[in-house]
Amino acid sequence: MNPMVKKQPNPYSQNLKKEQDELVLQYLPAVRAMAYRLRERLPASVDVNDLISIGTEEMIKLSRRYDKDQNDSFWGYGKKRVYGSMLDFLRSLDTMSRANRRLIKLVDHEITAYLGEHGSEPDDAYLAKVLGEDIEKIAEARNSSMIVSVMSLNEQITILSEEDTAQKVEKDELMEMVQGILSSFSEREQMIIQLYYFEELNLKEISDILEISESRISQIHKKLLAKIKEELGIAHG
Question: What is the pLDDT of residue 197?
Fold first, then answer.
């Protein structure tokens, strides 16, 4: 065989790659919508374009492994993985140092106390004064807390308690525990948790739907986390 003769492209491989690329292009708007939806639940410091880029990269990888004979819907096959890649990116931002975790817990404690007394959340200046911290560090802690709040409940408990909940309770058991705790909440409070975690609405959307302040929604979310920690025997503070 003459080494100068060019290898002919494989038509099957070419067609397959074309199909894969078309899949990515077809569902790119869905990735963008997912990124913007998630972005609404995050601090301003997170760039939506980073989320779109991460999600698109994951979708390209998935398109190379996708078998339409096994799964009739590419988005159904890849949606959770694309969302998971965005959460992985948020975890990698390294906003959760040990010092920051401690400050977040202190900030959360002060916010809860202030909410109970005034019905609204305090500003960063108030928290900085009460905790004797730089206002920039308070803002960072609140941003980190927003990022953590989009994670699963067991991850939130692990991050903020510095204890691995997986070692204490299986995922199914945790969900049973959450259901049990929620049964002690009012119907309105249960609906708020449902809309936030399962319908993935942001605080403003829930506020508009239920005509309740964002601060009150935040308070109910913190109440759930505190009760889960209590059930798991994880110390507060």
Answer: 81
218 contacts: CB under 8 Å, gap ≥ 6: 111, 115, 121, 203
Alpha carbons 37 and 22: distance in angstroms, whole number: 24
Name the phi and psi angles at 176, rounded to 5: -65, -40
* Neighbour count for residue 185 (Cβ, 10 Å): 16
What is the value of pTM for the model shown? 0.71
Fold (CATH) for 11-91: Rna Polymerase Sigma Factor; Chain: A (1.10.1740)
- Domain limits, the chain: 11-91, 94-148, 151-237
What residue type is 101 in one-letter code? R
Spatial distance between the Cα atoms of 27 and 90, rounded to a whole number of angstroms: 22
Contact yes or no for 181/212 (Cβ under 8 A): no
pLDDT tens digits, 122-151: 999 999 999 999 999 999 888 888 888 888
